[in-house]
Design brief:
- By secondary structure, the chain is mostly helical.
- It is built from seven helices and two strands.
- It has a two-stranded antiparallel sheet.
- Helix 6 packs antiparallel against helix 7.
- The longest helix has 17 residues.
- The termini are close together.
Length: 133
């Protein structure tokens, strides 16, 4: 899913402060090569309603985007994730910064669990995540 969004974001990340203005709209992803009309024609309105039901908030989308940038196998990788998230928060309008900072802090504190492995890898806590659509 994120791989399909990367081309859009590679040019659009510089425009992120403007994108935040639509933070109240959910993000949903259609199969590659389909627009909403194609999807509706091929799958029907109930399938489209299910996509909408499982749409992500902008905060969740950004969390997933940053989480997939590198394997979280070391404390340095976790620190890198924290740094990138702090940078994201600074690019968000001031009226929303505290809410996004709190969201990311809670996800970092509760959604990542250390795995008992010699490398000390970290994984997402499956109990904290909503199952994918």
């Amino acid at each position: 899913m994120i791989e399909q969004v990367k081309p859009l974001l590679s040019g659009g990340e510089q425009q992120f402060p403007q994108l935040v203005l639509i933070e109240h709209y959910p993000f949903l992803f259609l199969p590659s090569g389909q627009d909403p009309d194609d999807f509706l024609r091929e799958n029907g309105s109930s399938a489209f309603a299910a996509l909408i039901e499982n749409a992500q908030s902008l905060a969740s989308f950004l969390w997933d985007l940053e989480l997939q940038k590198e394997a979280l196998e070391t404390p340095e990788a976790i620190a890198g994730l924290r740094h990138r998230l702090r940078q994201r928060v600074q690019s968000i309008p001031k009226s929303l910064r505290n809410d996004y900072a709190k969201f990311f802090h809670e996800r970092l504190s509760h959604d990542l669990l250390p795995v008992n492995q010699p490398a000390g890898k970290y994984v997402e806590n499956p109990k904290k995540r909503k199952p994918p659509p």
